[in-house]
Design brief:
The complex is a heterodimer of chains A (about 325) and B (about 260). Chain A is α/β, with parallel strands linked by helices. Chain A has 12 helices and 12 strands. In chain A, a hairpin with a 2-residue loop joins strand 11 and strand 12. In chain A, helix 5 crosses helix 7 and helix 7 runs parallel beside helix 8. The two termini of chain A are about 30 Å apart. By secondary structure, chain B is of the alpha/beta class. In chain B, the strands form 2 sheets. Chain B has a 6-stranded mixed beta sheet, sandwiched between helices. A 4-stranded antiparallel beta sheet of chain B has the order 2-1-4-5, covered by helices on one side. In chain B, strand 7, helix 7 and strand 8 form a beta-alpha-beta unit. In chain B, helix 4 packs across helix 5, helix 4 packs parallel to helix 6 and helix 6 packs parallel to helix 7. Chain B is globular and about 50 Å long. The two termini of chain B are about 35 Å apart. The chains are: A alpha/beta (about 325), B alpha/beta (about 260). The interface between A and B is medium-sized, with 35 and 32 residues.
Chain lengths: ~325, ~260
């Protein structure tokens, strides 16, 4: 199976020598859904923004080949042709991803401006896209302005906009975080349903293991700007190997069998990457730390079939 | 045991939006129908239900922010009405909103934010600065945070500041609307543990509105299941989880266990 996206040693450094991503490599096969989980500050959103080249004056290194074009090095012109067509993105907050001063129809047509079809044909395509995400009376609703939609409905419209061109890769950055908790469940159900109909690949970033579990074939866990564990979603979430993944998943109340008023937490804070010491980024908070952990950062190595983790404690066992 | 807050036969209707509806003040639909709910002192009660079930409307009505169209709310045994009872309720019942960052004024320092309820309700309380330091300490923040601004906080720290603000009036009841929505799971656990510890230390009563049954199972003593504006089931959390009576509760629990 050929990869639609192949990322090699991606690095992102914000101005003021603030590293956010410190060498991330992964590939996404055609039609595959991949998730990235991690806490805030783990660098997961920076990976997405680097792929979309939306980082402004941050320094981006490494490569990211998307259907043969390197997204890190591609010209603006090449990117303009890809973004919104072959490569689309759904952002966290739907209220800010649409312009408040145009009705949806204008914004949907703008996304299709490179296509040769007639305006009517494009409008029909947009209406069908809205219908596909469960918006009732799309012919009428498409003439409404964003303020006339609830947050959940507007996020549905944003998803419709992103899928309208049948992209090869859809990137979603915390697509449910800005929504209220129950609307979130509906959007997850919608995305899950769309996975059956839409054949392109998906890359989703979230801090919620539940969202990833519902949607992704494969998951990568990020901590301190690197991938610390990756593998098939069901396996990683059920049987996490890396100490960080274990502790993170242990915090989820739904996974704790016996009723308790005291949930496990991960004491300490995520590291400040500009002051990072040698060794593993998680060492400071890790309970399974050995001597080597604070000297050299471990490599991401296989720990089981199709699974890799970045931890000495696991590699000595293997 | 006495109920801190109690709703009896509570109905809330929204006015219709059409011209005739407006002219005749005709209600369009009931958001809440005949809701009975009692929150006993020192316990945690969870209200669960899907989007649009009326969870937030129930919380708002209990707080006196929305007017019931029928039925009554009693706070400490006295019927809620404009005047001293409502005044009393505002002081002793505090609200924790969804999205803690959004509920902190970005132009105020944390010390001012935490002291604000005291300044409004008890302008003559002695040593408000010392009180602020004690409150910050109670929620696990160093007192030097008093001079910081909300944008300097992580999500978890912002959550703690909101809890400190709620505690400032030494409340009897804290109503929390999805208190951990949008948090990392590790931060969620921290905030929930903090709320549990504070309940022990201060004898607080909680009414938690959530869709997350994982939280409900660990943190609430009893729960009320809201479905299309009606309470379809109430009971002790353990009992409802092991033997749900209503069909809707059963589907909710099945979806939860399938996770």
């Amino acid at each position: 199976m050929s990869a639609v996206l192949n990322v090699q040693d991606l690095r992102v450094t914000y101005p003021g020598a603030q590293p956010a991503v410190r060498g991330v490599s992964f590939a996404i096969a055609r039609g595959e859904a991949v998730g990235i989980i991690g806490e805030s500050g783990s660098g997961k959103s920076s990976v997405l923004l680097a792929l979309m080249r939306l980082l402004g004056d941050a320094a981006v290194g490494g490569s990211a080949h998307f259907n043969g074009d390197d997204l890190v090095a591609a010209s603006e012109e090449c990117l303009r042709a890809l973004r919104g067509d072959r490569l689309t993105m759904v952002f966290q907050d739907p209220q800010t991803s649409f312009s408040p001063v145009f009705p949806l129809s204008t914004q949907f047509l703008a996304a299709l401006h490179r296509r040769a079809e007639s305006r009517d044909a494009k409008l029909r395509l947009a209406v069908e896209a809205l219908r596909g995400v469960g918006i009732a009376e799309p012919e009428r609703r498409i003439r409404d302005y964003p303020h006339a939609f609830s947050g959940g409905m507007l996020q549905r419209a944003a998803i419709a906009l992103a899928l309208m061109s049948s992209p090869d890769l859809l990137i979603a950055d915390e697509p449910t975080t800005a929504l209220d908790a129950t609307t979130e469940a509906q959007i997850i159900a919608l995305l899950r349903d769309l996975r059956q109909r839409y054949s392109g690949a998906v890359l989703i970033v979230s801090h919620q293991p539940n969202l990833i579990a519902a949607l992704c074939d494969r998951v990568m866990v990020m901590y301190g700007g690197v991938i610390v564990e990756e593998g098939p979603t069901a396996q990683v979430l059920k049987d996490p190997r890396h100490p960080y993944t274990r502790r993170l998943l242990a915090c989820e109340p739904a996974h704790i069998e016996t009723v308790t008023r005291h949930l496990p937490t991960i004491p300490g804070r995520p590291p400040d990457l500009s002051l990072l010491q040698a060794g593993c980024a998680f060492a400071e908070r890790c309970l399974q730390k050995v001597d080597g952990c604070t000297i050299v950062e471990p490599q991401l190595l296989p720990v089981a079939e199709a699974r890799r983790a970045r931890c000495y404690a696991l590699q000595s066992l293997a | 045991m006495s109920a801190v807050i109690e709703a009896r036969g509570l109905c809330v209707a929204v006015p219709g939006s059409g011209l005739w509806d407006t002219m005749w003040r005709r209600p369009r639909a009931n958001i809440l129908t005949d809701v009975d709910l009692a929150v006993q002192k020192g316990t945690t009660v969870a209200v669960v239900g899907e989007s649009g079930a009326g969870k937030s409307t129930l919380a708002r009505t209990l707080m006196g922010l929305m007017k019931p169209s029928a039925g009554s709310v009693r706070f400490r045994g006295r019927e809620l009405a404009p005047g001293p009872v409502l005044e009393n309720l505002r002081r002793h019942v505090r609200f924790l909103f969804q999205n803690p960052r959004g509920s902190l004024n970005p132009r105020m320092q944390l010390g001012e934010l935490v002291a604000e309820p005291i300044r409004i309700h008890e302008p003559h309380r002695r040593d408000p600065q010392g009180e602020v330091a004690r409150l910050l300490e109670a929620v696990g923040l160093p007192s030097r945070f008093a001079t910081r601004y909300p944008h300097e906080l992580s999500g978890g720290q912002a959550g703690r500041v909101c809890v400190a603000r709620a505690l400032a009036m030494r409340p009897e009841l804290i109503v929390a609307d999805e208190p951990t929505a949008g948090f990392d799971v590790s931060v969620q656990a921290e905030i929930l543990n903090l709320l549990a510890d504070l309940q022990k230390d201060f004898g607080l009563t909680y009414l938690i509105i959530t869709h997350d049954l994982g939280i409900v199972r660990h943190f609430s003593d009893s729960l009320a299941v809201l479905y299309r504006g009606r309470v379809v089931e109430t009971g002790a959390t353990q009992a409802v989880f092991s033997q749900p009576a209503h069909a809707y509760t059963k589907t909710l629990l099945e979806a939860f266990k399938a996770h």
